């Protein structure tokens, strides 16, 4: 009987490892509670989500829904109060602060609404920044890797420009190149087009879709349902919980939408 039980436990562990190997993100009852004075304020309650390699997921919800808290936990910018978060098969919930910082730098690329570029440094130097903190040993030629990332997002001819010499869309492309330069397992985008006009936003989503078609996993927070429609899947949140999780049947093609915008502009002229 003991032998059978041990065999079953080994089989369960083996199956669990296989499942984790096939997932970029897995959360198990992930929860976050903030302390405000003597009051506990639950921001995230028992969230269970899986994200496979190559997915493009949009997380939606009103203010206070918990989507930003979830993004912070997925980005290893904050630690959960309870539950587990597996990133590329590794349980981050059990890590030290140093291990947390290391996996954040090696596994995750961030794209923020405000670009977060250093104003007095060139696009090339901004993209090189994450490589300065990489201790994995793969960053032998930082400048070469940064140039390749900028060329990947179509900014090979703007690498020596500082942010003030670039348009909003170009600055976001620099931010995306910076997110890609470490060849992360996951891109996290927090309202990536919040500071951009409609046309430039669609251009950025065109780039996101191209990168996703190449196999890059993207998880994005947005409150715009029109922009969420460029993803492949939507997770909706309310009061710290996931209330809906579904694939998009009629996904918008950013290239097609961009052509429509350009055609309308020509007609208006």
Supply the CATH architecture. Answer: 3-Layer(aba) Sandwich
Separation, N- and C-terminal Cα atoms: 81 Å
Average pLDDT reading = 89
Low-confidence stretches: none
Number of strands: 11
Q: Share of helix among residues?
A: 40-55%
Given the helix and strand composition, which structural class is it? alpha/beta
Provide the succession of SSEs.
Answer: HEEEEHEEHEHHHEHEHEEH
> Quaternary status of these chains?
single chain
Tell the overall outline. globular
Q: What's the number of domains?
A: 1
CATH topology: the name is Rossmann fold
Describe it for me?
The chain is an alpha/beta fold and 269 residues long. It has a single domain, classed as 3-Layer(aba) Sandwich (Rossmann fold), CATH 3.40.50.300. Helices cover 40% and strands 24% of the residues. The strands form 2 sheets. Strands 7-8-9-4-10-11 form a 6-stranded mixed beta sheet. Strands 1, 2, 3, 5 and 6 form a 5-stranded antiparallel beta sheet that branches. Strand 5 (82-87) and strand 6 (90-91) form a beta hairpin. Helix 4 crosses helix 5 (142-152), helix 5 packs across helix 6 and helix 7 (198-213) packs antiparallel against helix 9 (254-268).
What is this entry, summarized?
The chain is an alpha/beta fold and about 270 residues long. The protein has a single domain, classed as P-loop containing nucleotide triphosphate hydrolases (Rossmann fold), CATH 3.40.50.300.
Which short descriptors sum up this protein?
six-stranded mixed β-sheet; five-stranded antiparallel β-sheet; Rossmann fold; alpha/beta; 9 helices
């Amino acid at each position: 009987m003991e032998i059978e039980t041990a065999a079953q436990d080994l089989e369960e562990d083996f199956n669990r490892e296989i499942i984790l190997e096939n997932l970029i993100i897995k959360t198990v009852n992930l929860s976050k509670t903030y302390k405000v004075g003597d009051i506990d304020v639950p921001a995230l309650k028992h969230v269970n989500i899986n994200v496979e390699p190559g997915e493009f997921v949009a997380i939606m919800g009103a203010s206070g829904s918990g989507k930003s808290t979830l993004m912070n936990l997925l980005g290893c910018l904050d630690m959960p109060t309870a539950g587990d978060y597996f990133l590329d098969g590794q349980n981050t919930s059990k890590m030290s602060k140093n291990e947390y910082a290391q996996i954040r730098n090696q596994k995750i690329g961030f794209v923020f609404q405000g670009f977060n570029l250093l104003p007095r440094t060139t696009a090339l130097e901004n993209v090189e920044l994450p490589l300065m903190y990489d201790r994995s040993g793969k960053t032998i030629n930082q400048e070469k890797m940064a140039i390749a990332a900028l060329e990947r997002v179509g900014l090979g001819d703007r690498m020596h420009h500082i942010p003030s010499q670039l348009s909003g869309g170009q600055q976001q492309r620099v931010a995306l190149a910076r997110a890609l330069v470490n060849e992360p397992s996951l891109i996290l985008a927090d309202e990536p087009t919040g500071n951009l006009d409609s046309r430039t936003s669609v251009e950025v989503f065109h780039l996101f879709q191209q990168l996703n078609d190449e196999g890059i996993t993207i998880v994005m927070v947005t409150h715009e349902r029109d922009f969420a429609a460029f993803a492949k899947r939507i997770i909706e949140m309310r009061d710290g919980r996931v209330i809906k999780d579904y694939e998009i049947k009629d996904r918008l093609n950013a290239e097609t939408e961009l052509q429509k915008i350009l055609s309308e502009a020509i007609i208006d002229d």
